[in-house]
Prior knowledge:
Protein name: Myristoyl transferase
CATH architecture of the largest domain: 3-Layer(aba) Sandwich
Order of helices and strands: HHEHHEHEHEEEHEHEHEEHHHHH
CATH superfamily of the largest domain: Periplasmic binding protein-like II
Main location: periplasm
Keywords: Signal, Transferase
Number of helices: 14
Largest sheet: 5 strands, mixed
Strand order of the largest sheet: 2-1-3-10-4
Number of strands: 10
GO molecular function, one term: transferase activity
Subcellular location: Periplasm
Mean pLDDT: 90
Amino acid sequence: MVTSRRASRTVVVLAAIASVGLASACGSDSQAAQGTGGVEKPDISVAVFPSFNALGAEAANADGMFKSAGLNVSLTKVATPAEGMPQLLGGKVQFALMDMTVPAVAKSKGVPLVLVAPGAKGTPPKDGFGVGNLWVRAGSPIKTMKDVQNATFGIPQINSQIWVDIRSAVDEAGGDSSKIKFVEVPNTLSALKAGNVDVTTTSEPAGTAALKDTSIQRLAGYTAAGGDLAYAYVTTQEFAKQNPNTVKAFEQAILKANSEVNADQAKRVQVASTYVKAPKELLEKAHFPEFGTEPISSTSVQTALDRLMKYGLLDQAKAPKAAELLPASQ
């Protein structure tokens, strides 16, 4: 159940963007491939948001992977994945980090986007504590994930990746997620403690910080995207077509950075400390996601599309095919 007047915000915004001509999105910013094997457009901007999900791009920029690939990268900070969309379509950035929901829904609305490199994957909880966690007030009658089906749930944005993840987790626990009363709240834990909602969610490192708060208790951790690809770097179909070497260089730099941060907790903490507003001591205790180290596959894309169709964010008749969300070379 949805009670917020902003519940369809993402779909409405994407539909509005889709109605704008896309010629300005790509034409002046892309150069035709020269056939030399070098990158066609070395100077690029990438929209990222201040969460652990941006760790690959942040590491690639800080540690020189982009530069080694022949790219001069500027990271443009946006508040949410959806906010990267107008900048991407307006040509202000050439790539944007998004959760899998945004480009899939946009594609179904006629916006020609493609996924070019993997971001964070759904990462299983460790000792029950996840990258994403559910919280209730101390003494709450909600004791299990299944119990959430009858609750008022505070969430940053309805019809989002997190919304799908929560519904999926409740259904997998034997509950009926269609019974949940979702309410959009700007500060999830504040809404919970004020009694405005019965249960809410946090991402890291907010969840680790919340462990000290005795007025609330963690209900459970959950795995985003069913354990598959949760976030990806996106560009326009036109940019990918006209700049295939640039896209490939970008992908290779991200894959290398993802592999390095997966393997090195100290590197994760060090890089995160440069853009996530949190004490280093908290980052050292936080649960980081794992990142994709292989090119995005059509199987992963199809898994995401199936989840979105299951929960009504995509009409099966209008849903894009997995191959349509990947560059032609893949």
